[in-house]
């Protein structure tokens, strides 16, 4: 933890899904208690409540397979926060009993954590999701971020959305302070060298009412951006009915099949060309590798504030399989998981911090 004056306090928001199976609730993995980090000199006083104007809100998903990743992400966020005691977590949970298991799991590893739980109804999006050959792409929780502005209290001005397979290497308050000009609703790192057109079908590009016409008149040419790291102005989102705009594209997809299955393309259709650019250091993505088994990827050139294991491979899976990529060992230093046999249990208090030589400003 780095002590220092914090211009804002941090609130982390979790979108939680219950763990269900044919035989009922499944047992969640166990985790060790994380070290407790205290505010440094100059940190603001504790917030009076969620509507405190100084709060920073961070949204993440939480589910059975990704719980281990989420716990590591939280630990890294706390460790690198300038005022970790000011972080407040909100869990947006599916409407069944299992979220209470998640509540206990989080409380056991982070006893001093301040958090709340809000319900998320999977039925709100289930009828809009198109079929895919990959069942994971059909999970309703993938679309819960579209409902953040509806689920969070109306007093919340903005939120940082983070995927569960990330690791912070810097104070997330720096990302929170991203300037959003009046015309912008979302800020995120953009990747204009990526093949943007591949997310949409030939039917989309050949339709005279769609294709390039969709992106005409936007602030800049449309570029790919990864939705795993975004700063979202929730008040502008609400005012502009952006959830409804995304869902309209999902309805069109069911009629015409205009994009590749998943939650990203409708986001691109609404926001590509309108995103406020964020430094790439805040999404060193692709560390999960592509969809080829066993592939590894290095960090991109440049400084790193947040590492993102986007892609099919996850560090916890590769570590358990005995085939980790080099950067998975960095993730391991934040792993709180206790193996079922009790061997190799995490020891977070002695885990190494992320190397300053790798992540220098």
TrEMBL record:
Write out the pathway annotation from the protein's UniProt entry: Glycan metabolism; pectin biosynthesis
Q: Which GO terms describe its cellular component?
A: Golgi apparatus
Top EC group: transferase
Q: Any idea of its EC number?
A: 2.4.1.-
Its keywords, alphabetically, are: Glycosyltransferase, Signal, Transferase
Q: Which residues form the signal peptide?
A: 1-27
Query: Is this entry keyworded Signal?
Result: yes
For molecular function, the Gene Ontology terms on record are: glycosyltransferase activity
- Tell me the protein's name: Hexosyltransferase
